[in-house]
Design goal:
alpha/beta, Spore Coat Polysaccharide Biosynthesis Protein SpsA, Chain A, 7-stranded mixed beta sheet, 42% helix
């Protein structure tokens, strides 16, 4: 039987648009969870394919699934558009009773103990404010890791302790919202983490860094996002080199770097939080010297005194 304890109640909010090709895998894997969401709000952000019919079918069969229709903006949007849809779903319900909040995409296939294991680990360590498993993509019939760092919860499935989510002020409505949140949590003494365990590995059915226009647009958008967040240029250049080993080989990393340099050249705006931008750069520069694992441990230890559980 699924775990239905109120102390472990999860509110899941899923923005979606035209996800008919992927969503049944996500819906079925959520129904199969050993710790199901207490409430799953799915925001249909103007779908024009079979998405509304599929959602209506599942909602009719599962009373913990609620579908909310958002007015059509005319196109699929990533970054700030996704967060706008997320908050549209949050505003449609009373979120106060839920100790855990999750932002979840509808292009994932989750293992059955996914939420059970994550909540177990958060209960074991009160400093864990946000966490996730690890995404894998299918290439040539095999599942291959997307190689996401252990110091972040991944953007397509972020589980949050409600107190941490409130403390950081929720999500920034801009590209890189899914990194800014983890950095801010860490700066306030919380722990952000993801684990690569069998019970937490999930299949990401849409490639990371893609876009409604093209994968090149997505890569350049990521570069802008890193500029907006205030990333250190040397650290980001190293990141781009790291991503050159993934499809589209070399060119993908160069497109990411192009997006960052172009944003710098234009003098694009940056996150209106100079203190957090300085924290991010200090963390990244330390990571270049000692590696991310050691830098993360150092910064978590240094910020432990700032941790406030409520």
């Amino acid at each position: 039987m699924p775990d239905t304890s109120l102390a472990r109640a999860i509110l899941v909010v899923s923005p979606c648009r035209n996800e008919a090709d992927y969503m049944r895998a996500t819906l079925d894997s959520m129904v199969a969870q050993t710790l199901r969401p207490a409430l799953w709000v799915i925001v249909d952000d103007g779908s024009t394919d079979e998405t509304p019919a599929i959602l209506a079918d599942y909602a009719a069969r599962h009373d913990w699934i609620r579908v909310v229709r958002k007015p059509d903006r005319g196109h699929r949007a990533v970054g700030p558009g996704v967060i706008e849809a997320f908050y549209f779903g949050m505003d449609a319900v009373d979120s106060a009773p839920y100790p855990y909040i999750c932002k979840l995409d509808l292009d994932l296939d989750l293992p059955p103990r996914y939420f059970e294991v994550l909540v177990d680990r958060m209960e074991a360590n009160p400093r864990i404010g946000t966490c996730s498993g690890k995404p894998y993509v299918r290439r040539g019939g095999a599942l291959v890791s997307e190689r996401r760092g252990d110091e972040m919860s991944v953007g397509m499935t972020k589980l949050y302790r409600r107190t941490c989510f409130d403390a950081i002020g929720g999500f920034v409505r801009e590209v890189m919202w899914d990194a800014i949140d983890c950095h801010k949590a860490r700066a306030m003494g919380w722990i952000a983490v993801s684990w690569d365990d069998p019970d937490l590995r999930f299949e990401h059915l849409r490639p990371m860094g893609s876009s409604q226009t093209s994968i090149w647009t997505g890569k350049r958008r990521h570069g802008f996002g890193q500029w907006f967040m205030g990333s250190d240029p040397l650290f980001y250049a190293a990141t781009c080199a790291f991503r050159m080993a993934e499809p589209p080989y070399v060119l993908g990393g160069l497109a990411m770097l192009q997006g960052y340099v172009a944003a710098w050249w234009r003098g694009d705006r940056q996150l209106d939080d100079p203190e957090l931008r300085a924290f991010i750069r200090a963390y990244q520069r330390r990571s270049l010297i000692v590696g991310k694992r050691r830098a993360t441990a150092e910064f978590e230890a240094a910020r432990a005194s700032l941790f406030r559980p409520t």
